[in-house]
From TrEMBL:
Coiled coil: none annotated. Residues 927-957 have a biased composition (Low complexity). Residues 961-971 have a biased composition (Polar residues). Keywords: Membrane, Transmembrane, Transmembrane helix. This is Uncharacterized protein. It comes from Cephaloticoccus primus.
Length: 983
């Protein structure tokens, strides 16, 4: 079955529909033309009048929306402009809490939304404000009066969907130091407004809500922005966000900035650029902030350095040192090429920034003559205003790391410094103390430090750490190294672990000083040659060590030095020293060990030990000098010594040298000495000594000395003397007193069991040397004869011919007749077999001669009597002797024979003359010399004064005797027998 075909409408219906369509078309076109005509008339009116009144309902709607936005408006003249915008002249906006208008607009152009307008609503698509001025209300201004914030700003806003777009905002703020402000970008106002009502203007509501808070913060910032140089501007770039409203990126550029006078510290900036990270306009929680800074130059005046921790009266300071509580240092500093980053949090509720960290880098810092370079600074600001910072910089090529903790506005701080300090910082310290510190210390190299400082109340309160310095010039000396740990608290400075080195000298220990009184103390151990540091002390130190040569090996020592800087009279030095191979007063020693206490003009060696080979000395001494003359006032001592006399004298000083000068010892003497020496020759010394070796006293030879002596002023008393002489023993007393030409030597000595041949040899040698002659040869003979001698005399030491005294002498022993004092008489008498074995005599010393008034020589059966003298100045004998055969015999026959031979004895009386070692003799009764003839009445008187015989005297003539009846001549030169003439 075919598909059904639709049936056409009836004709009447078609005609009716066509008519209705025609009517509607006519209505539309007539309405369109009427509208166009009305519009043309409105445009002609607007073009001719350039304005038209705003319908009242539009004004009421606009005022209602402003009121809903918490703004009250005072509208001036309103009209439509030819572009279809509402134009409001002289618009004033006020906030409910403030009486004065906060904004004034010379001309406001509002572009309305036509579709909204057809529904009876006023909705602005865009607005433009010319001549916009913003004011800080009196309640929010620092002056208490309304202040102009922005003047003649240009603002252009448009609405796109839910966003406000700042197509233009440029302003010049007089309140903010002629700061130019520019805003570009879009804002989503929904997160920023509190109401959801549609009858509001979002831009007005944002203004009403945030403007008071903005004024408050800008008022606080106004005091800081006044110093901005012209052409400084802020550019704000906005990016919309449906949560934060918008993110704002702020850029500030300028040619310079001068901080206000009240800024601490005052500073100024060169050309700069500051850029912030994007910041949300709305956030319920603090949001991160980063600010980047690029700065060409920063000039600032640093705060005054903390005053010195001491308050010292000017009268207590040395004349070359002056402290100032207010630092005179030029505190101007300049930073070049600075770049930095500040990180923190922004609290939008309070519109405040809480800094967290700061990182700064600078190319150079110029301050007080120093130019640190490559500076980097890291600061932790979490506890703002408490700050912790760390800096690294290069000063003169020396790296220095600084770490500081302080609170802004407070005078307390902590600083940690490690690295190297440049020598140039001493110049800064010199300015700080108003003293040229280069006069006292100079740094040849940058010292290494690791110091912790604490400043309290603006003053240095504490310091701890360590330092190590090389090539330090200190008061005339260059220390190769010095360092240690240091501490400071209040007025006390300590270096509990200090060390120093000067050449081969080194020391370690501690140092303390009271900065208020300048009292100091060193406690050091090490190796030190004391003269090497003489420049640190006054001349008393060099004077004490001037006779010490410690150059071979510096002593190892422990030293306690205390005193007061600038007042050397308070110096005290306690030393324990051990020195090897020193030379003291010219005496070379192997070792010296001592404990000594030294202060100006006072030297107390509480312990002194000296070693030289097998010799040694131990004891103590206390020396005081006159402070005015620096000469000896008194020296007390107590010593035991086995040193040789030259060494002992050199170590003891000129006073002791003078006392022991008469002595010479071939071997060291064991000596104990105790006493004192003082000025003006005053002294008292108790001595005891002994030696087994040879020695001389004023060149007189002795040996095996044992003595006890006392020196009292100019008197030397040896009151217990025992010494060896000629294989015998000398004992007695010796007294030396006086000085110079008035000095006298007295002695009372006894010689027991001495060998006579040695005695004569010693005396001959001694007297020959005194006369300047060559000593005679010593030939040993007649060794059986001994001598006992008692001798007392007094005279001038060194002048043999000045002595006066007396003595007794006894010679005994077999062979006495053969001794040389009898010359050839012994040969003539040998036929009688007279054996002499004893000589007994007394004598007197009378200056230039020794007088023997009577000499008895006896044997077993004979005797010789003699008298005469010995001339000391000429070394000549002059004796008369008579032989008495059998005088000593106990036999009756020998006695009778002796009586019978008495005439012969008278005839055989002889005279001995000549030197002791080679005497000459002749018979008195047969001499051709009338001075010796028996019939010469002057013979006896002239006997003692007879002139010395010639070196080769004439032969004595003997007359003829009745027994021979012939002439007999005895030649003394030919009748010779070696009887010990060399003695």
């Amino acid at each position: 079955m075919p598909a059904s075909v639709p049936r056409p409408p009836p004709p009447l219906l078609r005609h009716g529909l066509r008519f209705c369509g025609h009517c509607l078309g006519c209505f539309f076109w007539w309405t369109l033309w009427l509208g166009l005509g009305l519009l043309l008339g409105f445009q002609i009116y607007t073009a001719t009048t350039k304005q038209m009144p705003v319908p009242p309902f539009l004004l009421r709607s606009l005022e209602q929306q402003l009121s809903n936005s918490e703004l009250s408006a005072q509208l001036g003249k309103t009209s439509f402009d030819p572009t279809g915008q509402i134009v409001i002249q002289d618009l004033r906006l006020s906030l409910p809490r403030f009486a004065e208008p906060v904004a004034q607009v010379r001309s406001l152009y509002i572009q309305l939304d036509p579709l909204a307008l057809l529904t009876g609503r006023v909705q602005a698509d865009a607005l433009r404000a010319n001549g916009l001025s913003l004011y800080i209300p009196a309640l929010l201004s620092g002056s208490g009066a309304r202040e102009l914030l922005i003047e003649n700003a240009e603002l252009a806003l448009s609405t796109r969907e839910h966003a406000l777009e700042f197509t233009e905002f440029s302003a010049q703020s007089a309140q903010l130091g002629n700061l130019a402000l520019s805003i570009q970008g879009r804002v989503d106002p929904r997160p920023l407004i509190r109401t959801k009502a549609t009858e509001t203007l979002p831009a007005a509501e944002l203004f009403a809500r945030y403007y008071p808070l903005l004024c408050r913060r800008l008022g606080e910032a106004a005091q800081w922005t006044a110093g901005l140089h012209p052409s400084t501007r802020i550019d704000i770039a906005l990016s919309p966000d449906d949560v934060a409203g918008a993110f704002a990126e702020i850029t500030i550029t300028g040619n310079g900035y001068d901080a206000p006078k009240h800024a601490s510290p005052p500073f100024s900036l060169g050309a700069f650029r500051v850029t912030s990270s994007p910041l949300p306009l709305h956030s319920t929680a603090p949001v991160p902030l980063q600010i980047d800074l690029a700065l060409r130059a920063l000039d600032l005046e640093l705060p005054p350095l903390p005053p010195l921790p001491t308050r010292v009266a000017p009268s207590a300071l040395p004349p070359h040192f002056a402290l100032r509580q207010n630092s005179p240092i030029d505190r101007q500093a300049r930073v070049l090429g600075l770049r930095g980053t500040l990180r923190g949090l922004v609290d939008f509720a309070q519109m405040r920034v809480r800094p967290q960290a700061l990182a700064v880098a600078a190319a150079e810092l110029r301050f007080a003559g120093a130019s640190p370079r490559d500076i980097s600074l890291q600061a932790e600001l979490d506890g703002w205003p408490r700050i912790r910072s760390a800096a690294l910089l290069q000063i003169g090529g020396a790296p220095l790391d600084l770490d500081a903790r302080f609170t802004l506005g407070e005078p307390d701080a902590q600083l940690h410094a490690s690295g190297r300090l440049p020598p140039a910082l001493l110049d800064l310290a010199s300015e700080y103390t108003s003293t040229d510190l280069s006069r006292f210390v100079r740094l040849g190299a940058a010292p290494e430090i690791d110091l912790e400082l604490r400043i309290a109340g603006g003053r240095l309160a504490a310091l701890t750490g360590r330092f190590d310095a090389r090539a330090v010039w200190a008061h005339g000396l260059t220390l190769d190294q010095i360092g240690g740990r240091v501490t400071f608290s209040g007025k006390r400075f300590e270096a509990p672990q200090a060390y120093a080195a000067i050449g081969s000298n080194y020391a370690h220990g501690s140092y303390t000083q009271d900065l208020g009184t300048r009292d100091y103390r060193f406690l050091l151990s090490g190796q030190l040659n004391p003269p090497d540091i003489s420049l640190w002390f006054h001349d008393w130190w060099a004077q004490f060590w001037q006779n010490f040569d410690l150059s071979k090996n510096a002593p190892t020592a422990s030293v306690d030095v205390r005193g007061r800087w600038g007042e050397p009279q308070h110096s005290r030095v306690f030393v324990y020293a051990d020195s090897h191979s020193p030379t003291i007063e010219g005496a070379a020693l192997d070792q010296v060990r001592t404990r000594i206490y030294i202060k100006p003009d006072y030297y107390h060696a509480m312990e002194l030990s000296i070693r030289r080979g097998t010799q040694s000395a131990n004891g103590w001494f206390l020396r005081r000098n006159d402070p005015a003359t620096r000469q000896l006032a008194r020296e007390d001592f107590d010593f035991s010594s086995t040193l040789d006399m030259p060494t002992l004298g050199a170590l003891s000083g000129p006073e002791v040298q003078a006392a022991i000068a008469p002595f010479y010892f071939a071997e060291p003497v064991s000596v104990k000495a105790r006493g004192f020496i003082a000025a003006a020759g005053a002294r008292h010394i108790d001595l005891h000594g002994s030696t087994k070796g040879d020695f001389t006293f004023y060149d007189f030879p002795l040996n095996g000395l044992n003595f006890t002596a006392m020196i009292d002023d100019d008197m030397l008393l040896v009151d217990s003397l025992s010494a060896g002489l000629a294989e015998g023993l000398v004992s007695g007393r010796v007294l030396l007193q006086g000085t110079g030409e008035a000095q006298t030597l007295g002695f009372d000595l006894s010689l027991a069991q001495g060998k006579f041949y040695k005695w004569t040899g010693i005396v001959s040698d001694y007297l020959a040397r005194r006369r300047g002659e060559e000593p005679p040869p010593n030939v040993e003979k007649n060794t059986n004869v001994t001598i006992d001698l008692d001798l007392s005399a007094e005279g001038r030491p060194g002048d043999t011919l000045s002595f006066m005294g007396s003595g007794n002498m006894e010679l005994k022993g077999r062979g006495l007749g053969e001794i040389h004092i009898f010359g050839l008489l012994s040969e003539l008498l040998n036929f009688t077999a007279l054996h002499f074995n004893r000589l007994l005599t007394s004598f007197s010393i009378e200056g230039d001669k020794i007088v023997f008034p009577e000499v008895h020589i006896t044997g077993s059966n004979s005797a010789i009597t003699a008298s005469g003298h010995y001339a000391l100045d000429r070394g000549q004998l002059d004796f008369r002797a008579r032989i008495n055969p059998f005088q000593e015999s106990r036999s009756i026959l020998k006695t009778i024979a002796g009586l019978m031979l008495t005439p012969i004895s008278n005839v055989l009386e002889v005279r001995l003359t000549g030197p002791l070692d080679n005497p000459k003799w002749n018979f008195l009764h047969f001499s051709s010399n009338p001075a010796t003839a028996p019939n010469n009445p002057n013979a006896a008187s002239n006997n003692a004064a007879a002139p010395a015989p010639e070196e080769n005297p004439p032969q004595a003539e003997v007359p003829e005797t009745s027994e021979t009846g012939s002439n007999t001549q005895i030649d003394a030169a030919n009748v010779h027998h070696n009887t010990g003439a060399d003695y």
